[in-house]
Design brief:
Belongs to the universal stress protein A family. This is Universal stress protein. InterPro entries: Rossmann-like_a/b/a_fold (IPR014729), Universal_stress_UspA (IPR006015), UspA (IPR006016). The chain is an alpha/beta fold. The chain has a single domain, classed as HUPs (Rossmann fold, 3-Layer(aba) Sandwich). Helix content is 41%, strand content 21%. The longest helix has 17 residues. The protein is globular and about 35 Å long. The relative contact order is 0.23.
Length: 118
Amino acid sequence: MTIVVGNLATPEGRAALDAAVAEAEQRKAPLVVVAGPGEAGQDPGELTERLEAAGVEIRLAPGSGDLADDLVRIATETGAELMVIGLRRRSPVGKLILGSGAQRILIEAPCPVLAVKV
């Protein structure tokens, strides 16, 4: 079983990655980090070094550019036990509408989803 997370250079992306690393350490599960072509995330070499230093088995998975689709697809392919996503805080009106990518992930995910708020 694996844990799946996206690699995004946003506060939400960093919070999701930190939570995914903690879950991988606790569950002793490998971590699959998904990044689409051209997506700004942490440098893959730097990311690999950081996670290996934490004792987490890591696999980098290239995505197609639609992170929501990529996360769901890779979670399905790997038989993931958990997917981790980051969400930003929203205004009271904004809370009525969850981001479309996050909403698709929550609806289509083949496993539990841990949503980390920033």
